[in-house]
Specification:
Layout lengths: L4 H5 L1 H8 L44 H10 L21 E3 L2 E2 H9 L1 E5 L5 E8 L4 E3 L5 E5 L3 H7 L6 H8 L7 E5 H7 L15 H14 L6 H11 L5
Antiparallel strand pairs: 1-2, 3-4, 4-5, 6-7
Helix pairs in contact: 3-8, 8-9
Length: 239
């Protein structure tokens, strides 16, 4: 069962995500301290262009580190979905001014992104890493949780508090959120890698590193088939 001590040990990391918008919430993120979000994640005045190259998904650790993380992940049967609701993972909270988590990720993952006064992406170009599709309208993109909320619930998040789930659902520091095509996100649903993997095999290495690292940092379980598939996907990495 998830203990509360590891949440307290990670107060520094959580402050990067929640201090500006959740001053009354106690520390809820986990893992080692990480650098603050890249400049492209900051809100910009309406109509400005993000001239710098897009930073994309925060880079997961190198494959050698991730293999060690994978070895240490606890293997367990999926928990019951009784009581699950997406509302128990409050997401798309305000991050900067009018910018919520979705808009921050759209700005981060796109090229030449322009926002209106409400921080909505009104122009830009996005490449969906899952299926290699290119988009010029933000409405065609979904913000995917690399480890889906329902999968996290079955893996141990059913024992978390709401603030802990909110930190997980809005994690901009670790490799948990990415802008992808709506169609690929719907195909994925809440499936684990043994049930669904990106059709673009060139992304398998990054996807497996990201999935494994998120589960490691949040002390979540994996199933035997999930762990085996992650190992297979990590084999596509160049070491």
């Amino acid at each position: 069962m998830l203990t509360k001590a590891w949440w307290r040990r990670a107060a520094t990391t959580t402050a990067l995500i929640t201090a500006a918008v959740l001053p009354a919430v106690s520390a809820t993120a986990i893992a080692d301290p990480a650098p603050p979000p890249a400049p492209a994640q900051q809100a910009r005045p309406a109509g400005t262009t993000f001239a710098e190259p897009h930073s994309g998904l925060p880079a997961p650790p190198a494959v050698g580190v991730v293999r060690t993380e994978l070895t240490g992940l606890p293997v367990a049967s999926p928990h019951s979905m009784n009581g699950y609701s997406r509302a128990k993972f409050p997401h798309w909270i305000k991050q900067h001014g009018e910018c919520d988590t979705r808009e921050v990720v759209l700005a981060r993952d796109g090229v030449d992104v322009k926002q209106d006064e409400k921080c909505r992406a009104i122009a830009g170009t996005w490449f969906s890493e899952y299926d290699a599709k290119v988009f010029h309208a933000s409405g065609q993109l979904d913000i995917d949780h690399i480890v889906p909320l329902a999968n996290a619930w079955r893996s141990g998040a059913d024992d978390w508090t709401t603030p802990e789930r909110r930190a997980f659902a809005n994690d901009l520091v670790h490799s948990q959120l990415i802008a992808v095509s709506g169609s690929s996100n719907r195909q994925k649903g809440d499936k684990s890698p043994d049930q669904w993997a990106p059709p673009r095999h060139a992304y398998w290495c990054t996807y497996a590193r990201a999935w494994t690292d998120v589960k490691h940092r949040y002390h979540l379980n994996v199933t035997e088939p999930e762990k085996a598939k992650l190992g297979e996907m990590l084999d596509t990495c160049e070491e």
